[in-house]
Amino acid sequence: MLPPFNERGDLPPGIYRAAWAEIDARFGTGPAARRRLAGTLRHVHALAMRTGHLERFLIFGSFVTDKELPGDVDVVLVMAEAFKLEEAPRESRTLFSHAEADARFGASVFWVRRGILPDGEMAGFLDFWQTRRDGVRRGIVEVNS
């Protein structure tokens, strides 16, 4: 279950697992722009799942805050060690180019292949996405899929 927002409108620091139903209920209602972004997130998730190698799908940034009109969606994909971009379905490959994903979907997509970072550094990598530009820590959401 997702915790309440803090006084800054962020989730408290941490990674919170949630099913799509809870994510939609909490973040995908209200203005049409927010509902549209929720649809974008589901589409990006579906494309990542089609690779057969998605291990974790994490959502960060203004979408998972109380901001009424977030500008885009921000996600981190953790792919299995066996993931090979050249073997991914054609329709999914756009996700793995930050600029192309932004232009096509309005999504900032960052990704890492498990095993690419030295042992113990994955936690630090994920911790980075929990830090706002002003240095304040905040929570992020992992899709329970």
Number of strands: 5
User: What is the count of structural domains?
Assistant: 1
The CA-CA distance between the termini, in Å, is 15 Å
Q: Helix amount, in percent?
A: 25-40%
CATH architecture: 2-Layer Sandwich
* Low-pLDDT residue intervals, each spanning 5 or more residues: none
What is the average per-residue confidence, as pLDDT, rounded to a whole number? Answer: 96
How would you describe the overall organization of this protein?
With 145 residues, the chain is an alpha/beta fold. It has a single domain (14-143), classed as Beta Polymerase, domain 2. It has helices at 20-27, 32-49, 98-105, 122-128, and strands at residues 14-18, 54-60, 73-79, 107-113, 139-143. The protein has a five-stranded mixed sheet with strand order 1-5-2-3-4. The relative contact order is 0.23.
